[in-house]
Design brief:
This protein is of the alpha+beta class and 188 residues long. The protein is 14% helix and 24% strand. The chain contains 2 helices and 10 strands; from the N terminus they run ββαβββββαβββ. A hairpin with a 2-residue loop joins β6 (99-103) and β7.
Length: 188
Amino acid sequence: MRAQGSERAVSERPFRFPHEWVMAYDGALKVQRECAKNVYAGYLKSARPRSQGEVKFERWCEDCADVAWWYRNGDMGEAFLSIVYADNAGRQRLFYPDYILGFGGETWIVEVKGGFTPSGQSENIDLYAEKKAAALKAYCARHGLRGGFVCHDAGDDALLVSEDGFSEDPKAPCWRLLDAVQTTPAFI
């Protein structure tokens, strides 16, 4: 049991992309291709470590005409965007969403999770995915952003997105095709 008033205050500060970031690459690949829409010049498609879902999402970002730019967030440290959530014991924890992108004139924050097998089984290994999804939704609402969790559905070979939570069931109503997301046109 926690004493009243023992909750740590959450402080927010504006996020800015780090001026530089060192990334590992797979140097064994014969062809090294640069990602044209990444915020960092020289970000290669062979960046490591990344999950298969992250590779597919980055490819989608590069191929989607509505994505103007994208950023791969770090996994720890004050230089990267983190969001506070409460774990199953009620303790405050940080999670670092995988991507920030300019999509259809809006800023999105995206977390890529383990996807679904061809038979519909979840490959998610994050015990706190639902809590992180709720924290991300609240953060986006507070800051006028959009975002959600993205998973690869191997049954349809498609990326799914949920802006409304997280489910281990690919047929749950929260999941929809990422390609079908309606975005606000950029004002010119």
